[in-house]
Amino acid sequence: MNYIIRRMQDRDIPQALEIDREAFPTQWPHPTYASIKQELRNRLARYLVIAKPRELETPKQKTDNKSFWEWLIHLFDHDRFFGEELPPPPKEHIIGIAGFWVMVDEAHITTLAVRNAYRRQGIGERLLIAIVEMAAELKADVVTLEVRVSNKQAQALYNKYSFQIVGTRRAYYTDNGEDAILMTTDSLTSIAFQSHFQQLMQAHQMRWGEHYVNEASHVTLL
Question: Which of 67, 100, 137, 183 has the fewest CB atoms found within 10 Å of its own CB?
């Protein structure tokens, strides 16, 4: 299976919304088409996707996807809900999304999610690697994030990449009042962080690298 990692575009937004709702079903409020579109035009924000060509899907999957898109497009009055028509159905199937903001010397991760059917395949980790790479290119000194206290799987990934717990935000999540753990990396330019990060990148490449083709360069991703 060949995947592509690139910047998110307007045509990806409907699928990004699907992934967000699947990954965070209890979150409220959910992002909207308009809110993500606005984020894509924010000079402080960066959003990425991992995609696979739809040609790699089975004929049944293509038919099902087409039916879904036809239903979605005709269900809403787009002028009322979004201010404009949705883009046409994409030629790629988006399987993971990530986003972060850069503020002064900090890159703060706002979302990182993978479709349930594609979890445990190194996709979330590849998105995290891309975030760290982009953050370094943008001259951020650290990467930070919040994660639910109950999300042990995500915490394990962040611990693997040297994120450390630096605090707690009480009742941060409005859906159930759950606390958030605040985590941060050491300086991205430190020798210790760079050495560990390079080792993890190489290990990920050795295990999963053959799945990724035509990856955009850092300059294109920025």
Answer: 67
The tens digit of pLDDT for each residue in 72-100 reads 555 554 444 555 555 555 678 999 999 99
pTM metric for this prediction: 0.80
CA distances from 60 to 55, 64, 67, 147 (A): 12, 6, 11, 37
Domain edges within the chain: 4-214
Axis crossing angle, helix 123-137 with helix 191-208, rounded to the nearest 10? 140
Residues 108 and 101 sit within 8 Å (Cβ to Cβ) = yes
Query: How far does the chain reach from its first CA to its final CA, in angstroms?
Result: 26
**Residue 140 confidence (pLDDT):** 97
- Compute the distance between CA of residue 170 and CA of residue 119 in angstroms, rounded to an integer: 29
- Does pLDDT of 219 surpass 50? no
CATH architecture, range 4-214 = 3-Layer(aba) Sandwich (3.40)
What amino acid positions are annotated as catalytic residues?
146, 158
Backbone angles phi, psi at 101, to 5 degrees: -110, 145
What is the DSSP pairing of strand 45-53 with strand 92-103?
Answer: antiparallel
In this structure, what token pair is assigned to residue 123? 């996709």
